[in-house]
Amino acid sequence: MLRCGMRKANPVVRFLLFWAVNTLVLWVAGQIFTSVHFDSVSALALSGLLFGVINATLKPVMVIVTLPITLLTLGLFLLVINALVLMITAWFVPRFHLTGFWNSLVISIFISVFSFIVNVILGLKK
Q1: How far is Cα 38 from Cα 117, in angstroms, rounded to an integer?
Q2: What is the pTM of this model?
Q3: For position 118, what pLDDT does the model report?
Q4: How many whole angstroms from its chain centre is CA 99?
Q5: 35-68: string of b/e by CB count within 10 Å (b at 16+)?
Q6: Residue 26, burial from CB neighbour count under 10 angstroms (0-12, 13-18, 19+)
Q7: pLDDT digit string (tens) for 49-88?
């Protein structure tokens, strides 16, 4: 029932929900992984916003550009793209600290899984 309601929801409400979900998954990642740290709530909120914007705009371009290597690796290169999106977000937000590529890779896998679960529970579709 919630799922049907979300498809018809106001675009502003959907945007705010996706921003909240992104912020939530980044906050949970910061609580679980020592290699992720936010200096303030505003850094966390900005990171959630920017993470969503990068996922919606830059990530599809990166997927298309790297399609040959993604096909050769049977899709595993998408994990690298997810880690790069997270690292780009950390690079743009001064008070968002993320250490190392391999940590970013593990954290991006966690974020993908956790975000998927939260979106399913809330009935949101990307």
Answers
A1: 23
A2: 0.84
A3: 86
A4: 16
A5: ebebeeeebbbbbbbbbbebbeeebeebeeebee
A6: buried
A7: 999 999 999 999 999 999 999 999 999 999 999 999 999 9
